[in-house]
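Reopening this ticket.

The earlier resolution said the output was attached, but the attachment link was broken on my side. Pasting everything inline this time so it's all in one place.
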Amino acid sequence: MPRPEMVPPPAADAVTFRPAFWPAFGFGVAIFLATWAVLLLAVALTPWATTGSGWWLLAVDAVAGSLVYATTFAGLRRLWCRDWVRVSSAGLELVSRGRAPVLLRWPAVGSVRLVRRWATPTLVVTPAGPDGAPLTVAVWLMRPGRPALLAALQRHRPAMAQDSTVARTML
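Inline output:
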């Protein structure tokens, strides 16, 4: 599966949205520290919990563990998550789950929706025509971000903003 740098953009004004390391790193740190805090609270509420000067070692362990976990999570996500979206005046280019890039010219785009299932937003693009199967791309933790993606879609396809086919759907 080609990375965005390997595929020439269809137009000079193309904006590429791809997974980023630092948002995934921050997400990994937050998840690990939240889990550690819950476990620490559970240990502290047990009658056999130790008291004394050993608590700072748990804090050091939590910080070191969260950094290792978050680095591993963010690195693996960037390595394995091969989804990306490119918006330009020529059309909408999508890559999902390691497949080849698909360029949909704007007249061929029927609707674009940002659907949030649980905590992972997904861009759902339905081609125009009766037999067009929807194309989906996970835009979770992509940069420059979901608001920038929606703004780029509305900028390149202003008619879509007026007829509400560029929409956010919360499930």
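Reporter confirms the inline version is readable. Helices lie at 21-44, 55-80, 146-156, 158-162. Confidence is low (pLDDT under 50) at residues 161-167.
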